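Per reviewer request, we include the raw input and output of the structure prediction for the construct analysed in the revised manuscript.
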Amino acid sequence: MHAAPLVVGFDLDMTLIDTAPGFGAVLRALGAELGVEFPVEEMTARLGPPLDLMLGEHLAADAVGPAGDRFRALYPDHAIASVPLLAGAEDAIAAVRRHGGRVLVVTGKYPANARLHLDHLGLDVDHLEGWVWGVGKADVLRREGATIYVGDHVHDVEGARAAGALSVSVLTGGCTREELLEAGTDVVLEGLDDFPAWLEDHLLTLRLDALEADLRERGSVLVAYSGGADSAFLLAAAVRALGPDRVAAATGYSHSLPLAERDPARGFAASLGVEVLTPATHEMERDGYRANGADRCYFCKAELLDVLTPLAAEHGLAHVATGTNADDAVAGFRPGIRAADERGAIAPLRDAGLTKAQVREASRRWGLPTWDKPAAACLSSRVAYGVEVTPYRLGRVERAETGVRAVLEPAGLRHLRVRDRGDRASVEVDATLLPLPDELERRVLDAVRGAGFEAAEVDPRGFRSGSMNEAL
């Protein structure tokens, strides 16, 4: 079960671009050639219908076709440079991109002229379809898999509804809010400036609904629970969907789990009424884990799932669920995800399409204390690839981080990693704290050396999640 890809269609005229100045200029040029005085202000105030329909109100029937052809021929010289983007257009498209979505432009405009606008304004569009109008847009929207269509006209509403897409209307064209609502639009926005916030809220609601439906269908779950923002949110979501009696949390206890993480994790789970299981895991006994190659996380996750899968069966729970989110799934090299997938673990956050930012926002809305908790990767992630992972190395990293926190938390420390580089330790802290005052830096380095490192330095680039992967 995976979230449907996001595909958003936009109308062009008076939705993305303010066509009125250019359209009026072409009408004047055409009128001068034909000896016809078109009511330019009136015609540009209700852009949307096909050109031939608009010209047909002012020309003889047999003159409409040739006049339309001439209008389109005049258009590039009179209407491209003078037509600006409407406020919020670029941000609206960027909002779709942030969620990995595709962008369509589906318009009644002559395709070649529509393309000139897109190229001139530098709009990032995956697919352009022109010369489609009203319900005729539905075929394109269905074919391209659009789930949302944004327009300014009642006929854009017709196209969206016929396609089964959500109709989002903006009030930058000639139609009123009342007309758009009467036509059946789902959403009315003042303009595209409001679209990014609306899209964020819409997708979060949609994906939370998908998560709940998925969890309900699963029946019962054992959550692989580290106490971090993702697994804590998944645990809370599972309790909401299934009730605490059909959910349990399991935290693998080993040398790689910081002692400081254990009590807060248990306390949060207990606040949900969930049983917390704490089986021992023995990843250190796996050669691939100790060797600490780029695939170390594969062996760690394999050990965890090999322990949790029979544990779930023992407690009558149908699935083991991990807190992998949608960002994790596209983040590149993630051998741990492969190990979990191979062992049949489910990833409900990923499958619902929930990103890290959405997990945090939903956690904030639900009042979960973990909504802004900094990422807390396992201790082994602090050891440089190729340097053997041992209990001693993990212990001194944990002692060093405890010491650095004691020094810097009064200064506002949030993010910290002490990296074991083999021959030295490098300390990564929030960039906003850098450079550290000389006295604080001395105390930080003393704390790290006191934990067992012979040499230590503060990384001038600051904290970077996953910085060990930079060498891969």
